Amino acid sequence: MKLLLIEDDLTIADLIQKGLEEAGFAVDSCHNGREGLSHALKGAYSAAIIDIMLPERDGLSIIEEMRAAGKETPVLILSAKQSVDDRIQGLQRGGDDYMIKPFSFGELLVRVQALIRRDQKHSPQTRLSIGPLEMDLLRQQVCRDGGQIELPAKEYALLLYMAENAGTALSKTSILEKVYGYNFDPQTNVVDVLVCRLRAKIDKGFGQQLIQTIRGVGYVLRSH
């Protein structure tokens, strides 16, 4: 899953980004309001963490513009402002949760995860994100680092199965049954060939290899 972080304090931003990435999220980090708004309107994010006091554009106006543009991304507001009125204003202007600085990263992580779970319960999943890889399930489009990747039906079906089970090693038997719809023939190498073709499109030319072989088990898709 990909998150958007808009925070101008570089020390805080680095701390949050590192912690979220260690928790398995991909993070786009912006340090001013103008850049943050651009990412918020153009990108697809599971949640956003937005500071209120930002250079060039304040956090609340970013959230208002997101909502006006139809962006329903769950937003966790960060702020040093502690009054009840400030918190009420943040939520009234489109925020979904509000945290006061200084804060515990552990609490921030739990709140972000809760926002994502709440959002997923209210809307069907239309996108999958695994690190730099993005899948638009409605259009059946695949992108890596912003570049679109064309996949034939079987390769897309394999990638979707692996993405839905990201981080879990999948056996060749389960892949064959899921993608091709028939039981495993121990003599066939059809799965190996299909994985090889998918790897050539998903991983070739990139430093980070997302499709990994687990010897004696099968294959896994993961971003770290």
UniProtKB/TrEMBL annotation:
Keywords: DNA-binding, Phosphoprotein, Transcription, Transcription regulation, Two-component regulatory system. The modification 4-aspartylphosphate is found at D51. GO terms for biological process: regulation of DNA-templated transcription. One of its GO terms (cellular component) is cytosol. Residues 125-223 form the OmpR/PhoB-type domain. One of its GO terms (molecular function) is phosphorelay response regulator activity. Residues 2-116 form the Response regulatory domain. Residues 125-223 bind DNA. This is Probable two-component system response regulator (Pho family). It comes from Desulfotalea psychrophila (strain LSv54 / DSM 12343).
